[in-house]
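Consider this one:
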Amino acid sequence: MSMTNESMTSESTNRKQQKENTRNNILQAALREFVDKGLADTNVQDVAKAANVSYGTIFAHFPKKDDLLIRVINEYGSQIVEKFNNLVKEENDLEKILRADLKIIGEYEPFYAQLVSSISRLPSDARNVLIGIQFVVSHHFQRGLKKGVTNWIFKDLPGHLAFNCWTSLIYYYLSNRDLFAPGGSVIESKGDELIGFYMRMVRK
C-alpha cells in the first residue's frame, strides 16, 4: 500500500510539473509573439503554433486571449518592478534613479514598447500593470526630486507634472523606436541624451 501511495504521489507531482512546464512554454511563446506582432494583434493560434501545442492546450490553461495577455503582462511587469526596486533601493539621486529606470526598460525594451504603444487597446487589468510600474517608479522619482528641490539644485516643480514629463518623453521614444533607432535599441542609442536633456530641464 505504501508503494502504491508513493507511486500515486510521484505521478501527481510529475503531472503538476508537466503542466507547469507547458504553462511556462506557452507564456514564453506568447511573449515572443506579442513582441513580434503586437499585444492587440496576436491571436491564440499564433501562440499555439509558436509553443508547438494545440489550440485546446492553450484553452485549457488560458480560456480567453485576455487571460493569456494579462498573465504575460503581469509576469513581466512583476519582474520589471522587482528589478527596479532592487536596483534603486533607497537611492535619492534623481539622475541615478532615471538611469535605473532606463536600464530596466532597456532590458525589456521590445516588450515595454509594445505595452506602451498598445495601452489604449488593452483590457483594464493589463493597463493596471503599467500603472503599477509607473507608481513604483514615481515613488522613487519623487524622493529624488524632493532632495534636489530641498538642496536648491532643482526648480520647485509640481512632482506629478515633472514625473509625467519624464514618462511621456520616454514613452514617445519607445513608441517611435523604429524612427529613432531603426533595428536597434532606442534606450541604448538615446538614453544618455534624454537623461541629459531632462536634467537640464529640472535644474535651476
Notes: The chain has two domains: 1-63, 71-204. The first helix runs from residue 2 to 37.
